Amino acid sequence: MSLPFKAVIPAAGLGTRFLPATKAMPKEMLPVVDKPAIQYVVEEATQAGIQDVLIIIGRNKNNIANHFDQMPELEERLRAKGDHEKLLKVEHSTDLADIHMVRQGDPKGLGHAVLRARRHVGDHPFAVLLGDDLIDERDPLLTTMMAEHERTGAAIVALMEVDDDHIHMYGVAAVEPTDEDDVVRVTGLVEKPTAEEAPSNYAVIGRYVLAPNVFDILERTEPGKGGEIQLTDALQELAADPNGPGVRGVVFRGRRYDTGDRVDYIKAIVQLASDRDDLGPDLRPWLKDFAATL
């Protein structure tokens, strides 16, 4: 019987693009409508059946731990007021999963952050979910990636087609087709290439499903682009191994919200709020009226 999947969520970044808001507030705790961004990510993991979640945190990130912990005083006050709707929302974030925290220490890149999960993950397969990319719960991705990993044993990355003028912002995959729709074999990876250097327009977005053998590779991976230990470099080694299961990409064509950029963060809030039954009926007409004044 195979071991259950665990989830690893790197959340040690400084969030400098959102200063001064992130001077004392972790960027992962910035609200997207009425939930912090990281809660969407944890919910995605639990909806895929993962109950063990490790969050990699850095300095000044205690708010993340507090959010997923119990708050007896607040819960009792809501209970006394009879505000059961808000009480359920508060309890929901506490009861989502078995959530653990570990500090990254020096921020040496995504590969280093993932390596910090080694002791907790052990021999389990695991998913890495980046908090900058929110995947709409109506468009399943992680379950497809986990199934592909179980079927092939390969490391799985999520890919999305992007325009040439945005390709330099991503790791980009060189790919070959397989017999499955929207599943490709990854033959190489390039971190943040120019449009001319990019081997395709398939960009790696923030979801990975990996076997624990990646830790051995990360242990010996030298700092790469930006002087950081890149997960991309470890995946490149897996892709180049002729005796291993390699790397596969699941092409995602659903709704993704990039909250790592200020403009895209605002767009994500507007899109998600517009789709909600409790906010959309009031927001959508206002948006149309506001757009007409521009």
UniProtKB/TrEMBL annotation:
Signal peptide stretch: none
EC code(s) of this entry: 2.7.7.9
Entry keywords, A to Z: Nucleotidyltransferase, Transferase
UniProt feature coiled coil, ranges: none
Source species of the chain: Microbacterium pullorum
Superkingdom: Bacteria
Recorded GO MF terms: UTP:glucose-1-phosphate uridylyltransferase activity
Nucleotidyl transferase domain span: 6-273
SUPFAM superfamilies assigned: Nucleotide-diphospho-sugar transferases (SSF53448)
Catalyzed reaction equations: alpha-D-glucose 1-phosphate + UTP + H(+) = UDP-alpha-D-glucose + diphosphate
PANTHER family in UniProt: UTP--GLUCOSE-1-PHOSPHATE URIDYLYLTRANSFERASE
Protein name in the entry: UTP--glucose-1-phosphate uridylyltransferase
Family: Belongs to the UDPGP type 2 family.
InterPro entries on file: GalU_uridylyltTrfase_bac/arc, NTP_transferase_dom, Nucleotide-diphossugar_trans
Lineage of the species this protein comes from: Bacteria, Bacillati, Actinomycetota, Actinomycetes, Micrococcales
EC class (word): transferase
Keyword Nucleotidyltransferase: yes
CDD domains (alphabetical): UGPase_prokaryotic (cd02541)
Pfam families assigned to the protein according to its UniProt record, in alphabetical order: NTP_transferase (PF00483)
